Amino acid sequence: MADLHRTRRRSIEAGRGANRAIIRIFLATTLTWFAGTMAAAGADLYRAKVTVTGQGEANRIFGFAVCLEDVLIKVSGAQKLSGDRRLAAYKSNAKGLVKTFSYRDQFFGKPIRDEQGTRDRPYDLTVEFEENRIDDILRALGLKPWLSHRPRLAVFVGMEQGARNYIVTADGAQSDLQRDALLAAADKRGMDIVLPSAAALSKSNITGAELRTAPFPALAPIAAEQGGEVVLVGRLVWDDRDLGWATAWQMDWGGRTHRWQIHGVTFDEAFRRGIGSAAQILSGNGDPVARSQSSAGSKLR
């Protein structure tokens, strides 16, 4: 009987030891994965992509300059750097800041036509910059890398063009172009976003017309269901005079409501500035400044 008890005790202790070993392995694996994910996310901030024609040196240098501005904005969260004249000197020397670059042929697998050789084919040029060099430039500009947690934006965008009035959703066919543009804008500015599903909007009785006056508390449950942490609301109205979109954005953060407008732009540009401006607020780089692409400066009605 004593031998039986000792055998059972050894079995229990062995089982506990095995469980502890499994837990240690799990925790180590999880921490390694988490650290790797954070490192990958950080590295991605210093990488940008632009479309260029061919793989010639001139277009590559141009692409480096465009990507440098995008990376400076993405790393810092400061949308206000867009078009900043102080960047001209750095952009002229962008080649010296590049860590690696690569091309992807947008027409890969398609035959080269007589009138379009490899010189004229469109390529995605992906550029990764030296992290320390980018950080040094930001410090010289009075900014710093935004490497802390970036809240996931729950983006509600209403589109109004004549009689058409709808919300950009994660699954609706009507807004597939705008959905793709929003996701591209978020990637360009280093932000993670979620969009509402058509079913969630229908369940909450929120349409394009209601979004104009819907209080943020009414949108919060939809945002939380999608994994959003901060609600960003945008309204785009087509303006025939400007031949562009008049846009208004709103976000609650830091105990107050932030509002800004942009006029006379494509919806792609409106999304880049809208999400970029939200990032600027969240990163502590101040409120965005309203801009207009036209002299008319039309207002949302």
What's the short version?
The chain contains nine helices and ten strands. The protein has helices at 2-45, 57-76, 88-92, 131-140, 176-188, 198-203, 208-211, 216-225, 267-282; strands at residues 47-53, 98-105, 122-129, 153-161, 164-167, 193-194, 230-239, 244-253, 256-265, 291-292. Helix 2 (57-76) crosses helix 4 (131-140) and helix 5 (176-188) crosses helix 9.
Distance linking N and C termini: 89 Å
| Helical run tally | 9
Quick one: overall form?
Answer: globular
The average pLDDT value, as a whole number, equals: 85
Q: How much helix, percentage-wise, in residues?
A: 40-55%
- Uncertain segments are 25-41, 294-301
Order of helices and strands: HEHHEEHEEHEHHHEEEHE
Count of β-strands: 10
Helices and strands: which structural class?
alpha/beta
Strand content: 15-25%
Computed Rg: 25 Å
Main β-sheet, in a few words?
7 strands, mixed
